[in-house]
Amino acid sequence: MRLPLPAPAAVLAAALLLGGCASPALKIDTRYDSAVQDSRVQFLILHYTVADFDESVDILVRQGKVSSHYLVREDPVQVYRLVDESRLARHAGDSYWDGYAMLNAGSIGIEIVNPGYTNTPQGRVYAPYPEEQIETVIALTRDIVQRHRIAPERVLGHADIAPGRKQDPGPQFPWRRLAQAGIILWPDADQVAERLAFHRGQPLPEVVWFQQRLATVGYRVPQSGELDPATRQVISTFQMKYRPSDIGGEPDAETAALLEVVSTPGGMRALP
Question: Which residues are catalytically annotated?
């Protein structure tokens, strides 16, 4: 049996009732802009892709597992924005620096197209970066740092925030060039020379000294006093940045001198 259609008056009454329940249009007044505010971006993290350009695009754009805000191609050199800076990109993963963990939410990620490394009978060989690509990365990094006012000590490699798990951007990445561009600071050469002479003249500090100094810099490192694999990985990561000619993870006099200067207030300088 068909039910009778509602009378026109009933339909009109129901429409009016529903209309009365609807929320009014939201209007937001933007005339006031607080002086107490800053960018949400606190870190800039540099990566290499360990893939060619096409595979990098597939990984970062289509596969749906990881992403980054920018991708810098090597040939021809080109910068691609993959994620708007206002949105979170999943590039850092399990990460830590100087008391901050899981850095995706507060960072911008730059992926640099580079094959990474090859394991050979003579050891691991890292791929170089083309000069034009490095110049482009420096320009992009400088722009991001200036706009978001990111502190020099928060411009980091993926290896810095995940030592052992990650090695990028690797020992071929020219961190000193970033210092010369005014983006990061660099260990004062005179202080390093003085501390190197000191450490060469006596036994090396205990392992716990290296661990404590590395933690002061910002690394997540065991405080066990043992030269365990995790500690070696962090030492190697530190060496990749400041002494890339030898990244074996062995505590030595030069590493001690560099680490002492980097971890001491006033030890880092802007380069000309």
Answer: 111
